[in-house]
Design brief:
Order of helices and strands: HH
Number of strands: 0
Mean pLDDT: 81
Strand content: under 5%
Largest sheet: none
């Protein structure tokens, strides 16, 4: 049955391949016909294009001739406008020169007025600087007196600060020694902690290698177990199929034996008057 089904599937696949090849040939021939039609259409369109371009060329020459005449007229008009513009430019330049002379005269007057104002402002500034210098000299004397008092106060303060600094240095030295002892203890603890961490990392690496080896072993065992399980399942199915065939054969033999026994019993008791059933009833059923 399996071989017949495979042959049928192969025949179906062969028929499908032949059908696909036939379709491909049909498409190829259709494409060739379309290509020929397209070439003919292109040749026709090319001839029509040449005729249209000839008409367009004639119209273009007439149009270019008209445009050339218009350009010549425009050149003549531009020359007329150019000469008129040159006259306007001469008038405009004369007006600009007159305006420039007037502007220079006005700026000279304004410059003289500004110089006079600047001289007046300079005199006022010199007067203010003179008064400021007088005030600055008085302030300088006051500052010198204040600086002398501050120097005296600073010398007294330095003496007191020197004593305070000595006391603070002694206290800082004590604190430094205490901090140094704490730092030494902290470093010792860090060294021990680093050593413990290194040992823990080595232990973790060792356990990881052992775990990887164990998982690889379990993976190989699992693959072998699955393969063995598949072989057992395949063997069980095969044995079940054989047993089903044998059971069907035994059932057929048992049915034939039962039918033969019933026929023999019927032949033995066919002379009995109390038997109301047909001797071959079971066979008829």
């Amino acid at each position: 049955m399996e071989g017949r089904r495979q042959r049928m599937e192969q025949e179906e696949r062969g028929a499908e391949e032949n059908f696909e090849k036939h379709n491909s040939y049909e498409h190829k021939w259709g494409g060739e016909r379309d290509a020929e039609d397209y070439k003919k259409q292109c040749a026709k369109e090319r001839r029509e294009s040449f005729a249209y371009r000839g008409q367009e060329h004639v119209q273009h020459r007439h149009l270019m001739k008209e445009l050339h005449e218009l350009v010549e007229e425009q050149k003549h008009e531009s020359y007329v406008l150019k000469w008129a513009a040159q006259d306007d430019v001469k008038q405009y330049l004369a007006k600009i020169a007159e305006n420039r002379r007037n502007s220079l005269a006005f700026r000279n007057a304004e410059g003289k007025r500004h110089r006079d104002l600047e001289e007046e402002w300079r005199c006022e500034d010199l007067q203010r600087q003179h008064e400021l210098e007088i005030k600055r000299a008085g302030a300088h004397k006051d500052a010198e007196e204040y600086r002398r008092k501050c120097d005296e106060r600073d010398r007294n303060s330095f003496c007191y600060k020197g004593q305070e600094i000595q006391i603070q240095k002694m206290e800082l030295e004590k604190i430094r020694l205490v901090e140094k002892e704490k730092e030494q203890k902290r470093r010792d603890l860090e060294t021990l902690a680093r050593k413990d961490v290194d040992e823990y990392v080595d232990d973790c690496k060792k356990r990881r290698r052992m775990s990887l080896a164990l998982r690889a072993k379990e993976s190989r065992w699992h693959v072998e177990w699955n393969k063995e399980k598949e072989d057992i399942e395949r063997e069980r199915k095969s044995r079940h199929t054989r047993n089903m065939g044998l059971d069907m054969r035994y059932v057929e033999l048992a049915k034939e034996k039962e039918k033969a026994r019933i026929a023999l019993d019927a032949l033995r008791h066919e002379q009995c008057s109390f038997s109301t059933s047909h001797p071959f009833g079971p066979f008829l059923d």
